[in-house]
């Protein structure tokens, strides 16, 4: 405590002790003298600056020389003078970070911590109430001159003040989170944006990262969608700063969950093409372009934890809009010769499985750029995959491609539509031609039309009776009676080709399998899993699986 504060407290204690003791030497002789003395003291107090007034009142309350109101404290203790309460509502715009008593409380963690929580709640509630009542629209220009109180508390590390504000005014707290500073950043921007000092000093960066996680878990869920979709002067959304590689690397599931919810909630208010900042960077490309340690741009899905897909798939109600296959086809085709999907009594949905989630998370931010995909931090990679899947699901194909790979730098295909191609060889030829631009490893949808079938004589040749036992011969003859035409497997080569072109996941797959005979179960399994589970061949001889989230099969039995 400074000498000025000590002297002031001593003088304050002396004044109040003399008043309360009723010393004869200070007693006025008449009622007029009492009024004059009180008026003189009030005038003298009003001449103090706002900081002195603030700490004078807080000191009186801390020492229990006065109580705020009748709801708290010893009934025998006098209530604080009304003019002092009113004096705390004054403003001083000379310092944007000290323009009100709320600002002073937000930045002075020592005096704040030394005051009882109940007293602070009473004072803060009073000041917030006065703000709401006395801030007409014509004073907006004055309010803009001051730093938002939550930003000041964040800068000075006064988390308890922020929590107290949330407790005192839970219905107004989202509005306070939405207030912007001179850089047009709201509170959520400020949580994730790294200060210059953190970028220069590794220890400061670690402290900031730890604080970021605590604040994000506590307050991001309180923000309005408009706050999460707001841009600062650089055009950055809060998720841009959250995806800075120095922030998002080495994170656990709690941080990842907060960011996932940010994306889904903020998306409610984002307009088309509003995910890019002033440098045409999406949150994904911002992660790879931001100064400092960076991950490689080409990220393989094989190294991404499966929880990214699972988490988004489990929360469609949170804004994860999955358009129907018909809607996607209409959007991406100029013309189509494919007939409308008939009314189906049986539509098959096959959900695939993929690799187990990675266990370890890197504890500290990386000190150098990863040299290869294998060195890429798991949490950063998982967050990028969450965004990739979200954009593929909720944006048009062209916009999603720009968000994932950057504007004007990629021709990668985010879907495959084989409409108008009736032979497996023609579909494979189409894939070959499209592969020059490349395929994204996750495709929004794949559409396979009815494929012409030419019966292979070898496939229907009757096995030699010598090669079959009596029971096998009877089973084979019975199968021929039930299904005289053996099923086909022509589409296996189509999926083999997609796999060779780098496709590892399909969000929506539609296959028209209406011609007789339908594809066999073994062919379907081999097309998606890369092998027949009943095959005796070594596993290393088979390719890997293609993960399919939803499969719409229009088969012979679906249309009667």
UniProtKB/TrEMBL annotation:
<feature type="region of interest" description="Disordered">
    <location>
        <begin position="1"/>
        <end position="42"/>
    </location>
</feature>
<protein>
    <recommendedName>
        <fullName>Ankyrin repeat protein</fullName>
    </recommendedName>
</protein>
<feature type="region of interest" description="Disordered">
    <location>
        <begin position="311"/>
        <end position="375"/>
    </location>
</feature>
<dbReference type="InterPro" id="IPR036770">
    <property type="entry name" value="Ankyrin_rpt-contain_sf"/>
</dbReference>
<feature type="compositionally biased region" description="Polar residues">
    <location>
        <begin position="24"/>
        <end position="33"/>
    </location>
</feature>
<feature type="compositionally biased region" description="Acidic residues">
    <location>
        <begin position="1"/>
        <end position="20"/>
    </location>
</feature>
<feature type="compositionally biased region" description="Basic and acidic residues">
    <location>
        <begin position="365"/>
        <end position="375"/>
    </location>
</feature>
């Amino acid at each position: 405590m400074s000498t000025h504060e000590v002297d002031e407290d001593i003088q304050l204690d002396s004044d109040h002790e003399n008043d309360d003791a009723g010393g004869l030497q200070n007693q006025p002789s008449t009622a007029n003298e009492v009024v004059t003395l009180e008026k003189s003291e009030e005038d003298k107090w009003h001449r103090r600056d706002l900081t002195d007034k603030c700490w004078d009142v807080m000191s009186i309350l801390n020492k229990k020389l006065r109580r705020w109101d009748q709801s708290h404290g010893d009934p025998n203790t006098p209530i604080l003078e009304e003019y002092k309460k009113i004096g705390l509502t004054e403003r001083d715009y000379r310092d944007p970070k000290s323009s009100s008593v709320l600002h002073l409380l937000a930045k002075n963690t020592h005096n704040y911590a030394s005051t009882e929580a109940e007293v602070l709640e009473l004072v803060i509630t009073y000041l917030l109430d006065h703000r709401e009542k006395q801030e007409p629209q014509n004073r907006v220009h004055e309010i803009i001159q001051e730093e938002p109180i939550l930003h000041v508390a964040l800068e000075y590390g006064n988390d308890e003040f922020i929590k107290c504000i949330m407790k005192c005014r839970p219905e107004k707290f989202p509005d306070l989170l939405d207030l912007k500073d001179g850089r047009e950043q709201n509170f959520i921007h400020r949580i994730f944006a790294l200060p210059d000092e953190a970028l220069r000093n590794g220890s400061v960066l670690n402290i900031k990262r730890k604080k970021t996680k605590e604040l994000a878990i506590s307050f991001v869920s309180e923000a309005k969608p408009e706050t999460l979709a707001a841009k600062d002067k650089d055009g950055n959304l809060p998720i841009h700063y959250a995806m800075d590689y120095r922030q998002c690397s080495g994170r656990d599931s709690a941080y990842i969950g907060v960011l996932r919810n940010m994306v889904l909630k903020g998306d409610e208010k984002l307009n088309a093409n509003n995910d890019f900042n002033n440098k045409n960077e999406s949150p994904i490309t911002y992660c790879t372009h931001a100064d400092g340690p960076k991950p490689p741009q080409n990220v393989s899905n094989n190294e991404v934890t499966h929880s990214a897909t699972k988490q988004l798939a489990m929360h469609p109600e949170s804004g994860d809009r999955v358009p129907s296959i018909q809607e996607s086809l209409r959007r991406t085709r100029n013309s189509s010769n494919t007939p409308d999907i008939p009314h189906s009594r049986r539509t098959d949905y096959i959900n695939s499985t993929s690799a187990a989630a990675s266990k370890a998370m890197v504890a500290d931010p990386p000190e150098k750029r990863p040299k290869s995909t294998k060195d890429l931090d798991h949490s950063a990679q998982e967050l990028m995959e969450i965004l990739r899947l979200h954009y593929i699901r909720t944006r048009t194909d062209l916009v999603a491609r720009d968000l994932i790979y950057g504007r004007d730098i990629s021709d990668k295909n985010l879907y495959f539509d084989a409409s108008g191609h009736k032979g497996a060889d023609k579909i494979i030829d189409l894939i070959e031609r499209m592969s020059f631009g490349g395929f994204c490893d996750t495709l929004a949808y794949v559409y396979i039309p009815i494929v012409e079938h030419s019966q292979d004589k070898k496939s229907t040749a009757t096995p030699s009776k010598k090669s079959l036992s009596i029971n096998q011969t009877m089973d084979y003859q019975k199968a021929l009676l039930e299904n005289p035409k053996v099923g086909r497997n022509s589409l296996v080569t189509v999926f083999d080709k997609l796999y060779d072109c780098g496709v590892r996941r399909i969000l929506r797959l539609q296959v028209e399998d209406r011609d007789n005979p339908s594809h066999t179960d073994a062919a379907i399994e081999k097309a998606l899993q890369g092998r027949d589970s009943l095959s005796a061949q070594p596993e290393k001889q088979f390719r890997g699986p293609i993960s399919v989230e939803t499969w719409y099969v229009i088969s012979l039995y679906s249309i009667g």
